[in-house]
Specification:
This protein has five helices and twelve strands. It has 282 residues and is of the alpha+beta class. A six-stranded antiparallel barrel has the order 1-8-11-10-9-12. Strands 5-4-2-7 form a four-stranded antiparallel β-sheet, with no helix packed on it. Helix 2 packs antiparallel against helix 4 and helix 3 packs antiparallel against helix 4. About 6% of the residues have low confidence.
Length: 282
């Protein structure tokens, strides 16, 4: 290697030294990335059956609890069917009548047993009495089966009636209401709900951080104005397994507790990861 080449290499290292030094300092500083606060779940509420809407109990932005009644369809026919099925399931006359017939047939058979031994009645007559006893026993079994069927019909009628009541599957807020009482509920959604506790923090990260972000890690999330600029701690829940080749990025989802609904969904934010933690996971 000539003296000129050695001097050239030395000059290159001198020029690169500030860049490497700044990269080292940057690697030790926290890194901020754009993110978005989104509802944990968004649910369109439909009815299980068709019918005329009798009432809707919530308005837009109302808070709702899981299991809370949101709407009811007209259900007079279904209520009548439940009442009819309940009455049938409690009817005892058929079973009691069968039991009385069976008890009578047993007593009659005992009397004919004695008469047969005295040759007062024929074997054919005794056979007829035994058949009556068997038939009475079968009537009891049939009455019990009818009672069980009536109980199943009652359970079915209650299920059909309950389908006329729409309840909330989540705890959250009403985003939008699409229907009103008096309208016909069909395949269209009645309303849309959003679960805001926790919030999803969606962030797109550059590919060079792939492998550094792991589920369970924490990040500091700062929502954009008009909020107070306070940072909130969120936990990494999902890390995409694939890198998008066109953009050189991958997605990460964090969960941010929001029990008092202080933070709304739809806000832009910044998420900060500790650089030392990222380096340790690399």
């Amino acid at each position: 290697m000539t003296v000129g080449q050695k001097l050239g290499n030395s000059m290159k290292w001198l020029l690169l030294a500030p860049v490497l030094a700044s990269a080292t300092v940057a690697a030790e500083e926290p890194q901020d990335f754009d993110c978005m606060l989104e509802p944990h779940r968004v649910v369109n509420i439909n009815t299980a059956v068709r019918g005329k809407i009798k009432s809707i109990t919530v308005e837009r932005s109302d808070p709702v609890e899981e299991g809370q009644v949101l709407a009811e369809l007209e259900s007079e026919v279904e209520k009548a069917e439940v009442a009819l099925a309940r009455k049938r399931s409690t009817m005892k006359a058929e079973l009691m009548s069968s039991q009385v017939s069976y008890a009578y047939a047993k007593r009659k058979l005992r009397r004919f047993d004695g008469l047969l031994e005295q040759d007062v009645v024929s074997a054919q007559t005794k056979d007829e009495v035994e058949t009556e006893e068997d038939l009475a026993l079968q009537q009891i079994a049939q009455a019990k089966e009818n009672r069980q069927l009536a109980e199943l019909e009652l359970a079915r009628a209650i299920v059909v009636l309950n389908q006329r009541t729409v309840t909330s599957p989540i705890t959250g807020v009403v985003v939008e209401r699409f229907s009103s009482p008096g309208e016909f509920a069909d395949e269209e959604a009645l309303m849309q709900l959003a679960q805001l506790d926790p919030l999803n923090v969606e962030v797109i990260l550059p590919a060079y951080l792939f492998g550094s972000i792991q589920p369970g890690m924490q990040g500091e999330v700062t929502p954009e104005s008009p909020l107070d600029g306070k940072a909130y701690t969120a936990e990494v829940k999902i890390v995409d397994r694939m890198v998008d080749a066109s953009s050189g990025t991958f997605g990460v989802r964090l969960e941010l507790p929001n029990p008092d609904y202080k933070l709304p969904g739809g806000l832009k934010c910044m998420v900060r990861f500790d650089a030392r933690t990222l380096a340790a996971n690399k």
